[in-house]
C-alpha cells in the first residue's frame, strides 16, 4: 500500500432540525472531497462532560440535542450504505467494542454491511472504554482477554462456511452455532484494530488487517508500536507489510493563527484533552490532572464531574499537551504535521474537524473551508 489514504470521522450526535443532518452533510462533504473512507464511532454516550454542554463553552450545544445523544452506529452505516450507490467511499465503524456487543452479532452486522456496500465495509474494533460498558452492567475486569476471544469468535464464524461451529470460550462459547451469510466475492470485511498496549498490539499483528489507534501518540511512539505489530504478524506467519498502518487524529485549522489558538484554548477542547493517558502528559513534563497512572479514555470519568471540578481539571491541561494531540494551524501547517506522521509509517489518516468545539459560532464556521482544503490536500502526501 503505497498511496497515502484519507478518511473522515463523523461525530454521530443527533442534531437539529433532523437527527442525521450533520451526518448527511459530513458524508456529502466526504464524497465531494473524494476521501477513501468514512467512519462512524460506536458509542452509547458521548465524550463531552454534561456541564460543558452549554453555548458559553461550545457552539455544538446550539446545534446538537445533547452531548450523549449518540446515534447507533450500525443503523447509521446502513442508512449511509443506501445513499452511497455512486460513491466508492469505504464505510467503517470506528470502532465498535467487544464488551457490549456479542461477537456473533458484530460478525453479522459487518458481513451485512459488506454485502450492501459491495465489499467496501471495514470492521473497526477494540476492547472499548469503561464509560461505554460498566454503567450498562458489562464486566470491565478483563477487557483485553474478552477482546481476543471476540476476535477469535468472529473469525471462527466467518470461516465456518455454513457448518455448525463449536468453540469453547470463557466469554463466548459456541454450541452448534450457525453462520451462513456469504462473504462478498469471497472476501470478508477488513478488521482494523484500535490497539494501544503491548498485548493489544500483538493481537493486531495476529488478527488484524490494519492497526487503527486513536489519540494520543507522538509520531515516534507510533513508529515504535508499529514495529511491535509487524513483529507479531511475522511471528504468526503473516506478511507484516500487509497490515495497513492507520491512525485517527483531530484537526483544528483556520486562516489565522489567532482563530486556531482560540479554539485550542477553549474549555471543551482542554477537557477533551483529559482523554490522553498520564504517559502522554509525562512526555511534556506534566502530571495528568486526573492523577498519576490515569489511563485516559479507557478510564474516562470526567462526564460525572460537576462544572467546577471539570473546569478546574481542564484548566490544568498544559498547552503543549493540547497542541500535540491535534493537528493544528493553517492548512499548510496541518499538512506539514501530517507529513511527519506519514514519515513515521502512517498510510491511512482519518481526521475530524474539532474547530466547532469552541464557543464561537463565527470561529467554528471559519474552520470549515480550511478543513476541507486540508482533506483534499492530504491525499497528495
TrEMBL record:
SUPFAM superfamilies from the UniProt entry: Bacterial luciferase-like
Lineage: Bacteria, Bacillati, Actinomycetota, Actinomycetes, Mycobacteriales
Species annotation: Mycolicibacterium septicum DSM 44393
Alphabetized GO MF terms: oxidoreductase activity, acting on paired donors, with incorporation or reduction of molecular oxygen
Keywords assigned by UniProt, alphabetized: Oxidoreductase
Domain Luciferase-like: 36-348
One Pfam family this sequence matches: Bac_luciferase
Protein name: LLM class flavin-dependent oxidoreductase
InterPro entries for the chain: F420-G6PD/mer, Luciferase-like_dom, Luciferase-like_sf
Amino acid at each position: 500500500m503505497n498511496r497515502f489514504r484519507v478518511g473522515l470521522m463523523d461525530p454521530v450526535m443527533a442534531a437539529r432540525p433532523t437527527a442525521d443532518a450533520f451526518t448527511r452533510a459530513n458524508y456529502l462533504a466526504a464524497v465531494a472531497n473524494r476521501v477513501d473512507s468514512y467512519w462512524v464511532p460506536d458509542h452509547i454516550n458521548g465524550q463531552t462532560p454534561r456541564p460543558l454542554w452549554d453555548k458559553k463553552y461550545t457552539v455544538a450545544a446550539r446545534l446538537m440535542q445533547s452531548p450523549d445523544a449518540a446515534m447507533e452506529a450500525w443503523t447509521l452505516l446502513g442508512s449511509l450504505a443506501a445513499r452511497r450507490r455512486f460513491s466508492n467511499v469505504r464505510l467503517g465503524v470506528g470502532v465498535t467494542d467487544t464488551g457490549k456487543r456479542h461477537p456473533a452479532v458484530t460478525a453479522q452486522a459487518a458481513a451485512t454491511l459488506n454485502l450492501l456496500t459491495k465489499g467496501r465495509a471495514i470492521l473497526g474494533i477494540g476492547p472499548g472504554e469503561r464509560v461505554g460498558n460498566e454503567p450498562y452492567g458489562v464486566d470491565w475486569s478483563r477487557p483485553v482477554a474478552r477482546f481476543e476471544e471476540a476476535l477469535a469468535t468472529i473469525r471462527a464464524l466467518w470461516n465456518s462456511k455454513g457448518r455448525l461451529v463449536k468453540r469453547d470460550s470463557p466469554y463466548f462459547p459456541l454450541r452448534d452455532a450457525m453462520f451462513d451469510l456469504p462473504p462478498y466475492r469471497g472476501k470478508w470485511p477488513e478488521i482494523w484494530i484500535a490497539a494501544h498496549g503491548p498485548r493489544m498490539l500483538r493481537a493486531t499483528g495476529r488478527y488484524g488487517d490494519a492497526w487503527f489507534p486513536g489519540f494520543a501518540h507522538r509520531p515516534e511512539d507510533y513508529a515504535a508500536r508499529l514495529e511491535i505489530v509487524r513483529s507479531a504478524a511475522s511471528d504468526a506467519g503473516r506478511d507484516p507489510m500487509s497490515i495497513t498502518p492507520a491512525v485517527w487524529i483531530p484537526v483544528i485549522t483556520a486562516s489565522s493563527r489567532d482563530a486556531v489558538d482560540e479554539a485550542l484554548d477553549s474549555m471543551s477542547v482542554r477537557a477533551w484533552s483529559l482523554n490522553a493517558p498520564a504517559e502522554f502528559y509525562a512526555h511534556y513534563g506534566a502530571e495528568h490532572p486526573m492523577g498519576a497512572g490515569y489511563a485516559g479514555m479507557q478510564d474516562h470519568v470526567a462526564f460525572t464531574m460537576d462544572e467546577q471540578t471539570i473546569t478546574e481539571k481542564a484548566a490544568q491541561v498544559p498547552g503543549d499537551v493540547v497542541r500535540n494531540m491535534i493537528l493544528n494551524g493553517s492548512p499548510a501547517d496541518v499538512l506539514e504535521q501530517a507529513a511527519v506522521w506519514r514519515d513515521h509509517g502512517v498510510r491511512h489518516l482519518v481526521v475530524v474537524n474539532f474547530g466547532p468545539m469552541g464557543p464561537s459560532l463565527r470561529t467554528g464556521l471559519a474552520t470549515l473551508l480550511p478543513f476541507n482544503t486540508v482533506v483534499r490536500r492530504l491525499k497528495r502526501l
